[in-house]
Design goal:
Helices cover about 60% and strands about 5% of the residues. The protein is mainly α. The protein folds into two domains: about 30-130; about 135-265, no CATH class. It has a two-stranded antiparallel ribbon with strand order 1-2. Helix 2 runs antiparallel to helix 4 (about 95-130). It is globular and about 75 Å long. The chain starts with 10 loop residues before the first helix and ends in a 13-residue tail after the last helix. The model has no long low-confidence stretch (mean pLDDT about 90).
Length: about 260
Amino acid sequence: MKPFVKSNKNDFVDAEAIAEAVERKNMRFVPIKTDDQLDLQAIHRVRDRLISRRTAVINQLRAFLLERGMVFAQKPAKLKAAMADILENAEADLTPQMRNLIDMLWNEWKLVEQQIEELNDELERISASDAGCTRIRQIPGIGPIVATAIVAAVGNGAAFRKGREFAAWLGIVPRQYSTGGKAKLLGISKRGNVYLRKILIHGARAVVLRSKRDRIAMGAWMTSLETRAPRNVLIVATAHKLARIAWAVLSTGQDYRAVPEALTV
């Protein structure tokens, strides 16, 4: 609406700009989410906040223990395995006050971990009962978390005319700065839904790093791209491909059919 505001901002000028924008044939409108989509979106937002809280608790625990000369490997599993020994070891250089604080943080960590697991189980249950989620879960790299996040964000994908529009909305297509007939492509635009883009890239990373490429349709394409592009470029390109496939599956209502892609020389 902002490009249609003619002068200073007031209610009359805003209403006129809205009326003019609505009449444009090339305007794109956001469809209203259903109650189920809003519930799914809420679950993902709470889960994302709990994960941030868990990271903050772990970082604070590490900082307190580091001040007492206790250093652990970067993985949380190493610190989790050592927590019982830290709290029970009387020879550890911890004051009673610090020991109580660490015990409180450890209990908070376990509580947040339990809440995250409960939300993961709920997302698994929803994705197993929803037809759209079940179909896109057949795509490599898309599990219950990514599937429910996509369905919560776009429903059946009717807001987009093609898969590239969906990928552009996610911000995983090259940013363009072209003039005078000279096309210049930059890094990805990073527009749109930050959370969905993040977890979709995580799913693509799992496909790139852990999948057996001779068993998936896009395996040959990934191997070919890996020879001429950095690893992170390959991961984002895979996320782009997964997003377009997911849109095609949702918009057509058909199951995912893996078709090996022909390599171009």
